Amino acid sequence: MQDCIFCKIVNGEIPSEKIYEDDMVLSFKDIEPAAPAHVLIIPKKHISSLNAVTEEDSKIIAHVFIIAKKIAKELGIDKDGYRVVSNCGENGGQSVPHVHFHLLGGRLLKWPPG
Ligand code: AMP
């Protein structure tokens, strides 16, 4: 997608602090961290939100969680715990229309979120 900021990060047109990359997903540090550990995991394929995910994307979405677990371990937040969340649409607080998963940890996270 031409105007998608996360597609531009995938293509290297916009810099990011890369954490992990493979053929399906890219992970990088969130530019406005909401916790001591805050990275985004995104499919390389442009999917606008969770609403646009299809059966065809099942492998990619499952892979996101396998990679989230791996990154959590590498960041040293796996033992104390962490959160993986995807905001969808206006009420969900989604600001970038390319589906992404926040991996947050390094502090006690409140529930329910605000
Ligand atoms: P959301 O509000 O759930 O759509 O999450 C979008 C996230 O992307 C926010 O936490 C932003 O801080 C983050 N973000 C936006 N632009 C960038 C960027 N260029 N590099 C890293 N993170 C970004």
UniProtKB/TrEMBL annotation:
UniProt xrefs under PROSITE patterns: HIT_1 (PS00892), HIT_2 (PS51084)
Domain HIT residue range list: 5-114
SUPFAM superfamilies referenced in this protein's UniProt entry, alphabetically: HIT-like
InterPro entries recorded: Histidine_triad_CS, Histidine_triad_HIT, HIT-like, HIT-like_sf
GO terms of molecular function: catalytic activity
Motif (Histidine triad motif): 98-102
Active site, per annotation: 100
Pfam families for this protein: HIT
Cross-referenced PANTHER family: HISTIDINE TRIAD HIT PROTEIN (PTHR23089)
Name of the protein in its database record: Histidine triad nucleotide-binding protein
